[in-house]
Design a protein that fits this description.
Chain B: It comes from Pseudotabrizicola algicola. Chain B: Belongs to the ABC transporter superfamily. Chain B: Keywords: ATP-binding, Nucleotide-binding, Transport. The structure holds 2 protein chains of 2 kinds. Chain A has 15 helices and 2 strands. Chain A is mainly α. Chain A folds into 2 domains: about 45 residues, no CATH class; about 200 residues, Orthogonal Bundle (MetI-like fold), CATH 1.10.3720.10. Chain A has a two-stranded antiparallel ribbon with strand order 1-2. Chain B is an alpha+beta fold. Chain B folds into 2 domains: about 230 residues, 3-Layer(aba) Sandwich (Rossmann fold), CATH 3.40.50; about 90 residues, Nucleic acid-binding proteins (OB fold (Dihydrolipoamide Acetyltransferase, E2P), Beta Barrel). The longest helix of chain B is centred in the middle third of the chain and has 18 residues. Chain B is globular. Chain B starts with a strand and ends in a 7-residue tail after the last strand. Classes of the chains: A mainly alpha, B alpha+beta. The interface between A and B is medium-sized, with 22 and 33 residues.
């Protein structure tokens, strides 16, 4: 007979909880699994009815994602030399040849530059602003904080037309800088408010101790406040990245050629040579990876929690 | 090594007046203990000298130079906070080394290691050097916090109840250790405490604060034997001074006297008027008597091995008591 604990949940309630969590995970992960598997299906398999759960894996979707292809006449096709590479071979199976690389790689890099660039800028500016709001006597502090928050109260797309016109005048349309600034403007309110909350929790005594220990205010900020705010910075960064990475409406409106990100690009794949679901699914799969990797890398900070231990409350 | 001067310093937090027109000169190498209840302005005084607060009125000087425009780093002071304020993301070793790595000092790492080791040894926290600062007991944190002040040799040490959460034995040891450090370094110390033994044994000077005002500044003996008011008289002395109406023991009081203050040494047992023993507290090295004298209660000391018990009657007589007027001021 094991000891009975008042605070430990019983074995039954633990199993029920585990079951619920697993059930929820299955429901949320099923669509992701479907996208992942469709990416490795052949064209006919992807649209077969009833849907195929077991299928012969193919890299057709990924090859199509990264290439543009043309259909050539039967005579020309027969006269071609044997395929040189594995992806040539896959393309030939559907009676086409590779005409050149697609723009997916370029669009993906745009997403990386704009997503991470605006996240970095939001966190950089947000941390400094949050620190100032948390520690200094800022005139009209509450009004300013409310003003910052209020930029979040309206759906960003409501100002799409003015922004479109302004960007056209300023020459920021379809530029990386323009998109970074735009996403930073949307994210900065979230960043300031979240980070202010985290910095408020860090007792001032640490900085005061550092000031007396011979450090300047900025050095105290860097050596004492920043390491302790790491948890907050990491979670705020994930929120900012997820928004900037997934943003669709502004990207459609403001980018077309040069700075187009992956979200508006992926749906256009479907128009190239019929309904190419495997290529769309392959694009979606690759698109999911960076945020996933970023979150996993910062997981340690997210889980660690904030340390309050060394100040007697 | 520095002389610290406060000249008419005033400071308020919102509506509360934290300090009012405080002036004192802390001589070079002095060990000044600040006494007063919570909210009297002791911690504010330390923070003003450290440069963490700016006074609204008056001037603060170190070695005759005004330091109002100097940052805490430029003032070259060390402070032990009441809330230990160890850097939670650093190990004990790095906490102790933190002041030595400051851009003001830039010591070579070998010397830093040696100094950290020496301080850790004197505070008996050597075995905890590699611990995280958060993985310590309260007493250990407090010692690390003291250690962080001791690793460098600043002009002034400011300590805000540094020994308050230590057990009795460690407290006694560190009291001696701090006094030794004071004697060795000849540095100026400003020390806040509630503990009478710390005040009497360590201080060269005691300053008594009352609601932001400095009411008396002198040697511990002056404060104890020659207090300016009932307020100051109640700060020191165990048991506390007993205050009675001036005429309690019959005539003989000065004209303006309203109260008489009796410390144990002001009460002669065995002659005079009758009092009843209410309670006998045997503390080992001393025995306290709680006496009922008419409607009043008097607490005094007697022989540790006294055979007296509750309910018995004894005779008592005041001897050179302290006289106070109706406002509590000394006559």
């Amino acid at each position: 007979m094991s000891a009975y604990s008042v605070t430990e949940p019983s074995r039954l309630s633990k199993s029920v909880a585990a079951l619920l969590v697993v059930g929820y995970a299955v429901i949320t992960l099923l669509p992701l699994l479907w996208i992942l598997s469709t990416g490795f299906k052949s064209g006919p398999d992807s649209i077969s009815y009833p849907p195929k759960v077991l299928f012969e894996p193919s890299l057709e979707g990924y090859v199509n994602l990264f290439t543009t292809r043309t259909r050539i006449g039967a005579e020309q096709f027969a006269a071609l030399p044997p395929p040189e590479t594995w992806y040539d071979k896959i393309v030939r199976q559907s009676g086409t040849v590779i005409a050149g690389p697609s723009r997916f790689g370029e669009r993906f890099m745009n997403s990386v530059i704009i997503g991470f660039g605006s996240t970095f800028l939001s966190i950089f500016l947000g941390t400094l602003a949050a620190y100032a709001f948390s520690r200094f006597r800022v005139p009209l502090k509450d009004d300013l904080l409310f003003f910052i928050l209020s930029t979040r109260m309206m759906p960003p797309i409501a100002v799409a037309i003015p922004i479109y016109l302004m960007y056209r005048e300023l020459g920021l349309s379809d530029t990386h800088l323009g998109m970074i600034l735009l996403y930073t403007a949307v994210n900065i309110s979230l960043a300031v408010w979240l980070l202010k909350g985290f910095i408020d929790e860090i007792p001032r005594e640490y900085e005061e101790a550092a000031l007396i220990d011979g450090y300047t205010r900025f050095q105290a900020f860097r050596k004492v406040v920043l390491p302790q705010a790491a948890t907050g910075i990491a979670s705020t960064a994930i929120f900012c990245l997820i928004f900037a990475w997934n943003e669709y409406a502004f990207a459609v409106l403001l980018t077309s050629g040069n700075a187009q990100t992956a979200p508006p690009f992926i749906p256009t794949i479907i128009g190239v040579g019929g309904q190419d679901w495997p290529a769309v699914a392959a694009g979606a799969t690759l698109f999911l990876l960076p945020v996933m990797i970023f979150t996993i890398l910062l997981r340690k900070h997210l889980l660690r929690g904030i340390t309050f231990g060394a100040v007697r409350k | 090594m520095a002389e610290v001067g406060l000249h008419g310093v005033g400071m308020s937090y919102g509506a509360t007046q934290a300090l009012q027109d405080v002036s004192m000169t802390i001589p070079d190498g002095a060990f000044v203990v600040l006494l007063g209840p919570t909210g009297a302005g002791k911690t504010t005084t330390l923070r003003l000298i450290a440069g963490l607060e700016r006074p609204e009125h008056g001037d603060i000087t170190i070695d005759g130079q005004s330091v109002l425009r100097d940052t805490p780093a430029q003032r070259d002071v060390a402070m032990v906070f009441q809330q230990y304020s160890l850097y939670p993301h650093l190990s004990v070793r790095d906490n102790l080394a933190f002041p030595l790595r400051s851009p003001m000092l830039r010591l070579p790492e070998a010397e830093i290691a040696a100094r950290v080791q020496a301080v850790a040894r004197s505070l008996r926290i050597e075995h905890k050097l590699n611990n995280k600062a958060t993985a310590l007991s309260g007493g250990e944190m407090q010692r690390v916090s003291i250690g962080r002040a001791l690793v460098r040799q600043p002009r002034i040490y400011l300590m805000d109840e540094p020994l308050s959460s230590l057990d009795a034995k460690l407290r006694a040891d560190l009291r001696v250790e701090l006094k030794r450090i004071h004697a060795d370094l000849g540095a100026t110390f400003l020390y806040v405490t509630h503990d009478q033994i710390e005040a009497m044994t360590m201080a060269t000077h005691v300053g008594v604060l009352d609601q932001g005002r400095l009411v008396q500044f002198g040697t511990p003996r002056e404060i104890y034997e020659d207090p300016v008011s009932t307020y100051v008289a109640s700060r020191l002395g165990q048991p506390r001074i007993t205050l009675l109406p001036a005429g309690s023991f019959g005539p003989g009081a000065p004209a303006a006297a309203a109260q008489m203050g009796l410390r144990p040494e002001h009460i002669v047992i065995g002659e005079g008027q009758s009092a009843t023993v209410r309670r006998v507290e045997r503390l080992g090295d001393q025995t306290r008597l709680h006496l009922a004298f008419g409607p009043h209660e008097i607490v005094t000391l007697t022989d540790p091995h006294t055979p007296l018990a509750a309910g018995e009657s004894i005779a008592i007589r005041p001897q050179n008591p302290l006289w106070f007027d109706a406002h509590g001021n000394r006559i």
